[in-house]
């Protein structure tokens, strides 16, 4: 497994993710590959709800669109309550990501409150990760707001894209 895209330093705050508050980090892969894992820096408050972590294509305004490409329901009730957060590994069913297309890692809550949620750590001191940005919704995904100067803490892992049979070189 190989790390493809990431932003891992300088986290200064965290984003809400409960009820209708949905958090997303966009990214643009430099090479085509299969995504199989994301690692997010998270903090738990109280007894959080369940979450769905999913990957989506993005539109020209950086908003997640269409049906999810891959995703998984996760129980984040054991995430640290420490204000510094911790890196949480989330394995996904494999999905092909094309180079230079924008995708979003999206964290969908299944309920929760301000005191019962998991927050996603981010950096707000400028647009350091230049191939993506924080995008959020406060109404369950009906509308989205892009924050170009905010970068969520994430790692995106996977493996090489399979060579299509039509491009494979067959010997003998």
Describe the overall structure.
The strands form two sheets. Strands 1, 2, 4, 7, 9, 12 and 13 form a seven-stranded antiparallel sheet that branches. It is built from no helices and 13 strands. About 0% of the residues lie in helices and about 50% in strands. The protein has a single domain, classed as Jelly Rolls (Sandwich), CATH 2.60.120. The protein has strands spanning about 1-5, 15, 20-25, 35-45, 50-60, 65-75, 85-95, 105-110, 115-125, 135, 145, 150, 155-160. The protein is globular and about 45 Å long. The chain has about 170 residues and is mainly beta.
What tags apply to this protein structure?
13 strands, seven-stranded antiparallel sheet, mainly beta, six-stranded antiparallel sheet, globular, Jelly Rolls, 172 residues, single chain, 52% strand
What's the layout of helices and strands?
Layout: E1 2-7, E2 13-15, E3 22-27, E4 33-45, E5 51-58, E6 64-74, E7 86-97, E8 103-109, E9 117-123, E10 134-137, E11 145-147, E12 151-152, E13 154-160
How many structurally independent domains? Answer: 1
Query: In the CATH hierarchy, what is the architecture at level 2?
Result: Sandwich
Integer-rounded radius of gyration: 16 Å
Helix segment tally: 0
> What structural class should be given to the helix and strand makeup?
mainly beta
**Strand residue content:** over 45%
Number of strands: 13
CATH topology: Jelly Rolls
User: In angstroms, what separates the terminal alpha carbons?
Assistant: 31 Å
Fraction of helical residues:
under 10%
Q: How do the SSEs run, as a string of H and E?
A: EEEEEEEEEEEEE
CATH domain class:
Mainly Beta
Q: What overall form do the CA principal axes indicate?
A: globular
How much is the average pLDDT?
92
**Low-confidence parts, pLDDT < 50 over ≥5 residues?**
none
Outline the biggest β-sheet: 7 strands, antiparallel
């Amino acid at each position: 497994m190989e790390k493809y895209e990431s932003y891992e330093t300088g986290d200064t705050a965290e984003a809400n993710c409960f009820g209708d508050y949905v958090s997303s980090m966009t990214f643009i892969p430099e090479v085509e590959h299969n995504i199989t894992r994301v690692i997010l820096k998270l903090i738990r408050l109280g007894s959080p709800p369940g979450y769905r972590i999913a990957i989506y294509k993005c539109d020209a305004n950086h908003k997640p669109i269409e049906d999810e490409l891959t995703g998984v329901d996760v129980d984040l009730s054991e995430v640290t309550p420490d204000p510094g957060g911790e890196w949480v590994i989330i394995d996904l069913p494999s999905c092909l990501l094309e180079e230079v297309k924008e995708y979003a890692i999206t964290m969908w809550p299944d309920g929760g409150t301000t005191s019962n949620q998991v927050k996603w750590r981010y950096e707000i001191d400028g647009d350091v990760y230049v191939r993506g940005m924080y995008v959020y919704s406060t109404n369950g995904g009906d509308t989205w707001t892009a924050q170009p100067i905010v970068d969520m803490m994430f790692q995106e892992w996977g493996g090489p894209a399979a060579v299509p049979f039509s491009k494979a070189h067959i010997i003998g």
